[in-house]
Design goal:
CATH class of the largest domain: Alpha Beta
Number of domains: 2
Distance between the termini: 43 Å
CATH superfamily of the largest domain: Aldolase class I
Strand order of the largest sheet: 1-2-3-4-5-6-7-11
CATH topology of the largest domain: TIM Barrel
Shape: globular
Radius of gyration: 23 Å
Helix content: 10-25%
């Protein structure tokens, strides 16, 4: 019997921590504030500690990303980092820099070390190097194909291997792009990437002798020349599971709790369905939930080898989805459900709740919009400023006790 890999979800906020736990993540990764690839994540040290306590209470693990490329000035602050690590007590640290790894081994010798995708591990030889340096798990580069992964797995049977299964793709080797640094001064390796690969470009031909700049007209397919589609390995999940990775990683520490919950929910349901009946497993049954997310379109990227033109979206950087987040349940009692809005809701809209541990959703058409602050009946309500509406339980014709705080809802645009 094949052991299921760990499902690892991102958390850039405390709400994302809670949502990942609710929707079935086995483990969660968050940034060590100020010292990771997502330095701009909106989460404080105390919130990370609360998230870790909640995860541990639920039997889940938490890994902290400490995956910056460290300069000399960073090592001057390591005593403060050490205090934070002791305060948080995570289950592992994710590092990319060899100097940082050596510092962790010296100052926190009992702390498990995972090697970040930032280390660009593409071979068994690299895995063995990091294993000998003290790593318990290596996150392989997104550029590793499935066939290459199977070779690495066979050659490296006694070290953890983690792969990305869902999320944004980088036009460079796993985040080593310098476009953002060069053009905007925002360093991609410090979590401040301006995502210049999503911008629309015009091509200019410079005639060197005269200095004349001549624009070259492009058709629509030539504008977004670096705009990668989002990675989605759900269609190939059977092959992924049967190649025996130890951990499946969802990208997105800067994403909303809606994204975290919905993606985690889809892959959790798919993994459990495989475990229940591998012979009848059909991963495409779980794609509908992923298609409702805001996405640039999906690709399996390097899974089958070098990427094809289908891995790029040359037409637009906008989402292809017809749905968006409606809101998040913040409280439930015997009479009503309170939903904090993420987008405008109008009278007559149908919203669908993503039910934890159940791939079936619960839908309700709203005959009225009731303001949770004062019970006023409105034709519509916008999001922002914690605006919330009340949904009487009698409107929901189902076992609505499955709806609890941090349950997500979506609606058609």
């Amino acid at each position: 019997m094949i052991k299921l890999p760990e499902l690892l979800a991102p958390a850039g906020t405390l709400d994302a921590f809670k949502t990942a736990i609710l929707y079935g993540a086995d483990a969660i990764y968050a940034g060590l504030p100020g010292f990771s690839m997502r330095a701009r994540a909106k989460i404080t040290v105390d919130e990370v500690r609360t998230g870790i306590e909640l995860a541990h209470a639920a039997g889940r693990k938490v890994y902290l990303a400490f995956n910056l490329f460290a300069h000399e000035r960073d090592f001057e602050n390591m005593s403060r980092v050490s205090d934070v690590i002791n305060y948080l007590r995570p289950d592992a640290l994710i590092v990319a820099d060899a100097g940082v790894l050596m510092w962790v081994r010296e100052h926190h010798p009992d702390m498990p070390i995972h090697i970040s995708t930032q280390a660009n591990i593409c071979s068994a030889a690299s895995v063995k190097f990091w294993q000998r340096a003290g790593a318990r798990l290596c996150v392989l580069a997104r550029e590793v194909s499935h066939d290459e992964f199977k070779i690495i797995r066979e050659k490296c049977p006694d070290v953890g291997l983690e792969i990305f299964i869902h999320g944004a793709m980088c036009m460079s080797y796993s985040g080593r792009c310098l476009l953002s640094n060069f053009i905007t001064g925002r360093p991609s390796n410090r979590g401040a990437c301006a995502q210049l690969c999503r911008w629309k470009y015009d091509v200019i031909l410079r005639e060197h002798d005269t200095g004349i700049e001549m624009p070259i007209d492009e058709d629509d397919r030539g504008a977004y020349i670096m705009n990668a589609r989002d990675l989605c390995l759900m269609p190939r999940l059977r092959e992924v599971i049967e190649s025996r990775p130890d951990s499946l990683k969802i990208e997105g520490r800067n994403r909303s709790e809606y994204y975290v919950g919905a993606v985690t929910h889809a892959y959790r349901a798919a993994l459990d369905a495989y475990a229940h009946n591998p012979d009848e497993f059909d991963p495409m049954l779980f794609m509908a939930e992923l298609e409702r997310l805001e996405t640039r379109g999906y690709t399996t990227a390097f899974f089958d080898g070098p990427v094809t033109p289908d891995a790029q979206n040359y037409e637009t950087a906008r989402s292809t989805s017809d749905y968006h987040a409606a809101g998040v349940i913040t409280s439930v009692d015997d009479e009503k459900i309170t939903l904090e809005l993420r987008n405008e809701i109008k009278q007559g809209d149908t919203i669908t709740f993503i039910v934890p541990h159940d791939i079936s959703g619960i839908s309700v058409t709203l005959p009225q919009i009731i303001n949770a602050k004062n019970n006023d009946v409105l034709p519509k309500m916008s999001a922002g400023q914690h605006n919330s509406l009340v949904i009487p339980r009698k409107w929901i014709q189902c076992a609505s006790n499955t709806l609890v705080p941090y349950t997500l809802a979506y609606k058609k645009k």
